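Prompt: For my understanding, could you write out one protein's sequence and backbone structure tokens?
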Amino acid sequence: MRTVGSQRKIRFQHSLRAAFRDALALLFPELCVGCERALVSQEEHLCTHCLYHLPVTGFHLDTDNLAARQLSNRLPLVSVASYLYFSAGSSVQRIVHRIKYQKGFKLAEHLGFLYGMELSKSEAFRSCDLIVPVPLHKKRLRWRGYNQSEYFARGLARALEIEVSTGSLLRTNHSKSQTKSKSRWERFENMHGAFQVTHPARLEGKHIMLVDDVLTSGATIEACCVPLLQVNGIRLSIATLAFTKQ
């Protein structure tokens, strides 16, 4: 049983730690990814203003959305949705750059959780059995140190209470960066045969949510879907952090 003296000591230590954290925040404030202003208490990664003004798509509430039209004419999908509109020079571009190139995995997971709360309003996405993030090739994973799509998937999974599977899909070739491919056809050629399913029996009869960071041409998503759709009884839905109009 703690004495009065020990309780006071514990309270003093907690107060000291809080004061130290506050002092650090004053000297080295965490900046908003969107506008680079200092964040205040209770704000995470994005300030309230940037969070409120994110260009959300609302695709999860519209089965005939732009992303669905782009993919569904080539793939038999249950539902397609993206959280944000991506445009050059926007806050979303800064968010994606931080996530992919500046160790922004915590930001990816945070946004995944926020989007997961939105997807919980969609019956199609609530019915998913498993979340599968688009994998990186092992060479790129070693270079970057993390898979941004996996962390986005973790946030989605936490909000939707759905399991994440990181071993069901494997990237088998180390293709050139998609950002350097000039045409849509080059992007598809770049991704041809890039993925394979490792344990198809685990996916049989399940509704899978395939997750990526940015949907641009759809080449990466389609390359993932080709082997996945060969699994018996599988159904696929797509969720991405951002969508780029073509």
In short: The chain has one domain: 55-244. The beta strands are 79-86, 130-133, 163-164, 169-171, 195-197, 207-215, 235-244. Residues 4-27 form the longest helix (24 residues). The radius of gyration is 21 Å.
